[in-house]
Write a structure and sequence with these properties.
alpha+beta
């Protein structure tokens, strides 16, 4: 990382997030599944989904899968209503 966020790190505050949280990444993402998993483990009860055969833009590469994953996650939290 470069620029103004070069030294920004609030990893030690992730436990303060108290809402259901979903982490996602592509299998071949620059934000690797291992790294994303590390952050996911800092939030009790959060979930991680790794999209196979996808890169950093997994929301564009695997749009239908991402939407299904988000819907399923939201249904599990009671936050999803189909309009």
């Amino acid at each position: 990382m470069t620029g103004t966020l070069n030294s920004f790190d609030v990893t030690d505050r992730l436990h303060e997030i108290t809402v259901p949280s979903l982490f996602s990444c592509g299998r071949y993402d620059e934000a690797t599944p291992e790294t994303t998993g590390y952050y996911q483990k800092q939030l009790t009860g959060s979930q991680l989904n790794v999209f196979k055969d996808a890169l950093h833009a997994h929301h564009l590469e695997k749009e239908a899968g991402v939407l299904a994953t988000v819907r399923e996650f939201l249904r599990g939290t009671g936050s999803y209503r189909k309009f």
